[in-house]
Each structure stands twice: as C-alpha cells, then as structure tokens.
Amino acid sequence: MEPDIAPNVGAILRLGACLGVPVDVVEPCGFPFSPRAWRRQAMDYADLVELTRHDSWAAFLAARPPGRLVALTTQGAVPLGAFAFRPGDCLVMGRESAGLPTHIHAAADARLVIPMRPAARSLNVGMAAAIAAAEALRQLGGLGAARPGAAYSAASEPG
Length: 159
Known about the structure:
The protein has a 7-stranded parallel β-sheet. The protein contains 5 helices and 7 strands; from the N terminus they run αβαβαβββαβαβ. By secondary structure, the chain is α/β, with parallel strands linked by helices. It is 32% helix and 16% strand.
C-alpha cells in the first residue's frame, strides 16, 4: 500500500506474473506509476501479471472480491506457517518506510508474521510477499489452484 520503492513493485509484479497471483497496487505511490513505468518495472512479465491499481484504500476495499484480508506485519500475532489459508484470501503488505497503518491492522481478518531471528528488523517487502504467496499456494494446492491475491499498499487515510 502506497509503495515507496519502484524496484520492489517490479519484484512483486514479476512474482504475481510467475505465480499467477493477481496484484493490486494502492496509491499514491512514492514514485511515478504510469502504465509506461509499471511496464518497465515488470519488464517482459508485464503481459502476464494481473494488475489492478486503486486510487485509495477505500477504493481498494470497494473493488476487491470477497475474502479475508491477511496482513503481513512485523507486529503480527500468528506465525505464517501456523495460518490456514483459504481461497480468496488477500495478502496485504505495507509501505517500506512505515509498514501498515493502524486502521489497516484493525481492518485485517488476520495479522501474520514471518518468523525470523530476534536481531533482524524486517524482510524486504518483495521477499515477504514471495514467502507468503508461496506458503498460501502450497496450502491451496499450488499453481493453478484457488489462488490468493496480493495488495501492496499502506494507505494513510482511514477507510
């Protein structure tokens, strides 16, 4: 949500293209995110990714299909491996500089943490998305099975 770093968006777009997972980007972005820019970030994967852009968190909520909002956060209560994914779940990742705001934590149906060493602060958002998407797909039967979605945003407005 409101991504800060264009290469991270590119990595998540390629992840979505390769795994067949739709990607939603909630704006505003901390960089120009025109169709030309996102095609450049996705490189030759641009035609494979199912991308939806939203002007705000409220617009994302109004447009998303039914399913649980599953937040990836360093403040998560449930370890990723202990969570049972369901078809239609949507992974929500926060802004690189600030994570997920309080109102999105409150809106999430689950808040997951990827366990890591105590001295480590956090993973790169693209890497976290890949780990969580792979675990969700593993649980749901792999590529071609019922798939989770991924919303990359940290919208600052309440919604």
